[in-house]
């Protein structure tokens, strides 16, 4: 193994922590629809996804090359810059996980890296053309392409399966969902695990442990694959709930269409070296599949919150990364302060999350955002509901409030005529 200093070791460990958060943050991309439609039990789904994420990590290093060789200029980049970038990415991942929003771990990482690099060496440290062609354009195109493909695929599946019995069709598409979910997990490992490989390789180059332009060493590939697989197995249940029931209600046919479309987009981008957001692709596919069924709807209130999080990911992570880099300029004290801040923030977010636990026991319950506000008709009907009638031999517990809500107020009695004198 290459000669690694203490600071470089801290950077590598932090990168693997980010990879771990990436795993549980993005589990929903592969398994949310499979769990929500009942194709697989929650724990079985995340275990399967974890294994395939690990396998996918060994399939390619093209995306890792984009991160380590193309996004920022290696000259002048120090390990402190990489550490600052990871701080911004980890905190954004945890904040969005806490509120159950499927944001992009990839963009959080790249935003932190861009912000820290600019704070350290100026705008010239970032390759603008790479950011535009391999980050920003795929960020916009991926959800649109995946969404349109999923919508068309969903309509096609309903059309082709119209003559097949309902139970037979559902059973077949659930089996197809399992296969397509495995493909998404494989694609996720191929794309997202490589980002951590790239960031560790960049840190090794910055710290002088590797020559400029080197590919990720084998131990980097193995450790990154293991970290993302472990995070995936633990499951990001909050985001799984949002993706599975918060955006739309999916049937097995739609789930199959969404996952197949997302996997195709992710694998194609990985082969081209695009640092694609798997979250964008999968979320776009889920929304497209939701519109692909006649009568299907997308809950745009949840989608709007998600879009806002997408737009904030790059700048928010960049600001935190830049701030962390400036603090670390003070030397070892600054590095220690950033480490303490990161650990304390992670602990605080974890304790806050314990107030309302979401895990494999309640992940299939509807997300709070999925509940629509009652309409005028529903409200009016509730206002005139007749109080419940007591069963024979029992007494109905009717309160004054029940009576007020269901029985109109009596009209005032007419005044008695005055007595004649």
UniProtKB/TrEMBL annotation:
Broad class of where this protein is predominantly found: membrane
Pfam families the UniProt entry points to: PHO4
Record keyword Calcium present: no
Keyword Transmembrane: yes
Membrane-spanning residues: 6-24, 45-61, 81-101, 108-130, 136-158, 307-327, 333-352
Compartments it resides in: Membrane
Entry keywords, A to Z: Membrane, Phosphate transport, Transmembrane, Transmembrane helix, Transport
Lipid bilayer topology: Multi-pass membrane protein
PANTHER family xrefs: LOW-AFFINITY INORGANIC PHOSPHATE TRANSPORTER-RELATED, PHOSPHATE TRANSPORTER
Similarity-based family: Belongs to the inorganic phosphate transporter (PiT) (TC 2.A.20) family.
Name under which the protein is recorded: Phosphate transporter
Source species of the chain: Streptomyces cirratus
Organism lineage: Bacteria, Bacillati, Actinomycetota, Actinomycetes, Kitasatosporales
């Amino acid at each position: 193994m290459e000669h690694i200093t203490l600071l470089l070791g801290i950077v590598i460990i932090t990168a693997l922590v980010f990879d771990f958060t990436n795993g549980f943050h993005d589990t929903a991309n592969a398994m949310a629809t499979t769990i929500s439609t009942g194709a697989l039990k929650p724990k079985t789904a995340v275990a399967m996804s974890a294994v395939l994420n690990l396998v996918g990590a060994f399939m390619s290093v093209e995306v890792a090359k984009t991160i380590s060789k193309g996004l920022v200029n290696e000259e002048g980049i120090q390990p402190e810059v990489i550490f600052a970038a990871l701080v911004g990415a980890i905190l954004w991942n945890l904040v969005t996980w806490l509120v159950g929003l499927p944001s992009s771990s990839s963009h959080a990482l790249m935003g932190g890296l861009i912000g820290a690099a600019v704070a350290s060496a100026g705008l010239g440290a970032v390759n603008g053309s790479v950011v535009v062609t391999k980050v920003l354009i795929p960020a916009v195109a991926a959800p649109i392409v995946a969404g349109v493909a999923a919508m068309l695929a969903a309509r096609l599946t309903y059309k082709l399966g119209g003559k097949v019995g309902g139970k037979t069709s559902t059973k077949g598409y659930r089996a197809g969902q399992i296969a397509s979910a495995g493909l998404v997990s494989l694609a996720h490992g191929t794309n997202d695990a490589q980002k951590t490989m790239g960031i560790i390789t960049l840190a090794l180059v910055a710290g002088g442990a590797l020559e400029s332009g080197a590919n990720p060493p084998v131990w980097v590939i193995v450790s990154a694959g293991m970290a993302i697989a472990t995070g995936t197995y633990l499951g990001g249940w909050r985001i799984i709930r949002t993706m599975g029931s918060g955006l739309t209600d999916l049937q097995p046919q739609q789930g199959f269409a969404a996952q197949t479309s997302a996997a195709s987009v992710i694998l194609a981008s990985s082969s081209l070296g695009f640092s694609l957001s798997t979250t964008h692709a999968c979320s776009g596919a889920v929304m497209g599949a939701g519109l692909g069924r006649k009568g299907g709807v997308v809950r745009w209130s949840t989608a709007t919150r998600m879009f806002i999080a997408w737009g904030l990911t790059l700048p928010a992570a960049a600001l935190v990364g830049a701030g962390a880099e400036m603090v670390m300029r003070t030397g070892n004290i600054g590095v220690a302060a950033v480490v303490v801040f990161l650990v304390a923030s992670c602990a605080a977010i974890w304790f806050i999350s314990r107030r309302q636990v979401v895990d494999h026991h309640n992940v299939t319950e509807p997300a709070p955002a999925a509940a629509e506000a009652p309409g005028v008709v529903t409200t009016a009907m509730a206002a005139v509901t007749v109080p419940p009638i007591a069963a024979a031999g029992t007494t109905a517990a009717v309160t004054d409030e029940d009576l007020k809500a269901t029985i109109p107020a009596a009209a005032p009695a007419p005044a008695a005529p005055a007595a004649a004198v």
